[in-house]
Amino acid sequence: MTPDLDLATHLQTIGLGTLASDIFAGPTRPPSASISKASIFCISTGGLPPLPYLDGSQSDFSAATVQVLVRGEVGAYALTQTKARSALAAIQRAVISGYVAVYVRESDPNFIGLDDTEHPIFTLNAEMQWKG
Questions:
Q1: Spatial separation of the C-alpha atoms in residues 62 and 51, rounded to whole Å
Q2: Could you tell me which of 21, 44, 54, 123 has the fewest CB atoms within 10 Å of its CB?
């Protein structure tokens, strides 16, 4: 399982952007000729330890967390907030192959401020659960 890439791919599938253009799995990257100012980053942030099933099988229940960071254009606070809310809606109870449940840990995205180049940034945290 690659929760960060799986979630980034899901966001592309529902139309929030394009992988490697304005949606990325992995750490944030500064705006450049190949990286849009307004971008979404899906960053693995660990998760709970695997929980063994008590049915004698060798399967575990696992849950990984992914922080979704939504960066907007300079001066576009409201537009960035709207995009972050769209990402939240797309992730909450998403059906992603291989996962038994996907949900967001917040009711609304968190505004964490402006980056050092004045771009507004919102975050939300997703939990992705699977058996295996």
A1: 6
A2: 54
